[in-house]
Amino acid sequence: MAFAHTCSVALLGVDGVVVEVQADLEPGVAAFTLVGLPDKALSEARDRVRAAVVNSGESWPQRKLTVGLSPASVPKSGSGFDLAVACAVLAAAERLDPAAIADLLIVGELGLDGRVRPVRGVLPAVLAAADAGYRQVVVPEQTASEAALVPGISVLGVRSLRRLIAVLTGDPPPDEPDDRTAPGRPDPMMAGLTLPGVGARGLTGERTHHLDMADVAGQYEARRALEIAAAGGHHLYLKGPPGAGKTMLAERLPGLLPPLRPKEALEVTAVHSVAGLLPPGRPLIDTAPYCAPHHSTTMPAIIGGGSGLPRPGAVSLAHRGVLFLDEAPEFPVRVLDALRQPLESGEVIVARSAGSLRLPARFLLLLAANPCPCGRYSRRGEGCACTPAMVSRYQGRLSGPLLDRVDLQVEVEPVTRVQLLDRDTTAETTATVAARVLAARGRAAARLADTPWHGNAEVPGHELRTRWRLAPGALDDAEREMQRGLLTARGLDRVLRVAWTVADLAGRDRPNRTDIRTALVLRTGVHRGLPLPTP
């Protein structure tokens, strides 16, 4: 009997589980048995591995072969185990030294010709390997830069099984032509890294770079709300007629957010790697993502799910970034109400018959909606043909519990002719506003340095009411709103969070009554004769 083992990784959402790949050869009729709860794609590895080994110039053992994937109770899917299975088989057949692969973690798909094809989820796989104590990993050459993002890990990127065998045996590397750079020729090896049609669209880095806040005509209150949302991570609801600039404002919000911290960048990159959405040639996503699904998108595409083990949805693709729901009342009510849990906890727990898993979902929610089905409803009642029942039913699609979790609720008025046609030389650019946002986040980070929270929007209300004191009399207006029943307990906590952000933007060490009033105006949309203070 001959035996060898190595390791690979099974992905459960964006979390990895180290799997031991064992190969056992015994006398008997030639057969290949794969055990350990594999899915269909993994079961087909038997044919892929056999063809890849033979086409790499190696002999396939003509004995009874059993390959086990342990722990057997963990569901395993995908083709990323191919390379580990091939190495374990060759080591059991004494073509490789079993000790040479015992401490390696190997990830990669094999083509029938022996080439190693890239797979999705390499970064979370290597992160799981590092957490388990592994220090050497073997990955496809195309994803070596992604794997190298994990500190303390030695990465070997291989192009073919033949080259990996040469490295492990100390033989000279084989002479393999590299035709990937042939002009005008697509690289079929990269096809498995991207998944078109995930039900969500985003902004490319190049397009985000050209979106400037100075392009927005008027909308000073909405621009101010956008700045506060970016500085504190507060959710925002923009309501106004078509053409007022709601989508323009939303697309410029990611440009106001500061660059991701190293840990956050790894989290975001891991989600996009599993989803097959990593930008070509960009192994690390260090800017806030932007996800804007269409209102016809299904529940699994928004929250996460699908057949078999769940996959990341739009709320996870927007992790540490912006989730923009345009025409929010047009989304199914079930989808909108399902957002309530991730808005509070920052994660999604998806349970399916194949298993349950946790997906990160700490995003900044931006809702945009028309005031009525025709979009022309206003306090003046001009031009709207909708009945009161139609308006009430349309606005009621955004439930009270959902809106109660949205810190900033701003009415966007139509742009006037003067605002649209006259050049506003005082309009601030994205860079100017982003600098203020970065400074405000720095003040908040210094205040929260000894706490588990990183921004004002994450701080529990109890801590805000007891740990950090406000200026005397600052809460008078908010207490009056609670007595009138216009502000809930959760609403008061969110007013406090926004007030701290307003104070951070103004450079004050604690909120005063003006900051609380500003937060109340942005929370309720009712000015009561109070102008929105400017920074």
Describe this structure in words.
The structure is a single chain. Helix 6 links the parallel strand 8 and strand 9 (154-158). The protein has 23 helices and 18 strands. Helix 2 (45-55) packs across helix 3, helix 9 crosses helix 22 (489-506) and helix 19 (430-447) packs across helix 22. The protein is an alpha/beta fold. The longest helix is centred in the last third of the chain and has 18 residues, at 430-447. It has two domains: 3-172, Ribosomal Protein S5, domain 2 (2-Layer Sandwich); 213-458, Rossmann fold. Strands 11-14-17-10-18 form a five-stranded parallel β-sheet. The protein is elongated and about 85 Å long. 36% of the residues lie in helices and 16% in strands.
Largest sheet, in brief, is: 5 strands, parallel
From the alpha carbons, calculate the radius of gyration and give it in angstroms: 28 Å
Portion in strands: 15-25%
CATH superfamily of the largest domain: P-loop containing nucleotide triphosphate hydrolases
Keywords: ATP-binding, Nucleotide-binding
Protein name: ATP-binding protein
Pfam family, one: Mg_chelatase
Family: Belongs to the Mg-chelatase subunits D/I family. ComM subfamily.
Layout of SSEs?
Elements: E1 2-12, E2 15-26, E3 31-35, H1 40-43, H2 45-55, E4 64-70, H3 82-92, H4 98-102, E5 105-106, E6 109-110, E7 116-117, H5 122-131, E8 136-140, H6 144-147, E9 154-158, H7 161-169, H8 205-209, H9 220-232, E10 236-239, H10 246-252, H11 262-275, E11 290-291, H12 299-303, E12 304-305, E13 311-312, H13 314-317, E14 322-325, H14 333-338, H15 340-345, E15 347-352, E16 355-360, E17 364-369, H16 388-395, H17 400-403, E18 408-411, H18 417-421, H19 430-447, H20 461-466, H21 476-483, H22 489-506, H23 513-524
Parallel strand pairs: 3-4, 5-8, 8-9, 10-17, 10-18, 11-14, 14-17
Antiparallel strand pairs: 1-2, 2-4, 6-7, 12-13, 15-16
Helix pairs in contact: 2-3, 9-19, 9-22, 19-22, 22-23
